[in-house]
Design goal:
Blueprint lengths: L2 H4 L6 E2 L5 H11 L3 E4 L9 E4 H9 L10 H4 L6 E2 L5 H11 L3 E6 L2 E7 H13 L3
Parallel strand pairs: 1-2, 4-5
Antiparallel strand pairs: 2-3, 5-6
Keywords: CBS domain, Kinase, Transferase
GO molecular function: kinase activity
Organism: Desulfofervidus auxilii
Length: 131
């Protein structure tokens, strides 16, 4: 199975200068666990801010989410792979880098994301097909 077969094309973004509080509101409102942080300029790269980042780097340290910018908390760069990469290789990368999401990119454009849940769903689809 290839990444393109199970990737999620719906990606939520947030501006680099938004506050962590803005990110919390968006994540809770949309019931999602991460946001892609837009680059500051053409020299910058996309980042990601996750629920885990917010809980451990902001809330857990007693920092005020309204005073912290997402760019200060986001992880950069995103881990990107080709749409034709095998799922087994993606799982290996997730385990090696201790991450829950791998982005599918083409040049500088994000095409989609494969999260742990997508991998599990993909395994069910594969099984249903008899694979």
């Amino acid at each position: 199975m290839k990444a393109k077969e199970i990737m999620n094309r719906k990606i939520e973004y947030i501006k680099f200068d938004a506050t962590v509080y803005d990110a919390i509101e968006k994540m809770v409102d949309k019931r999602i666990r991460s946001l892609v942080v837009k680059p500051r300029d053409e020299q910058d790269v996309y980042g990601i801010i996750t629920v885990r980042d917010i809980v451990f780097r902001v809330i857990g340290k007693g920092l005020d989410p309204q005073k912290i910018k997402v760019d200060e908390t986001a992880s950069k760069p995103l881990v990107c792979v080709d749409k034709d990469m095998d799922i087994e290789h993606i799982i290996s990368m997730m385990e090696k880098f201790n991450i829950a999401r791998i982005f599918i990119c083409e040049k500088k454009k994000i095409l989609g994301v494969v999260a742990l849940l997508d991998v599990m769903a993909g395994s069910l689809i594969e099984r249903a097909k008899g694979g």
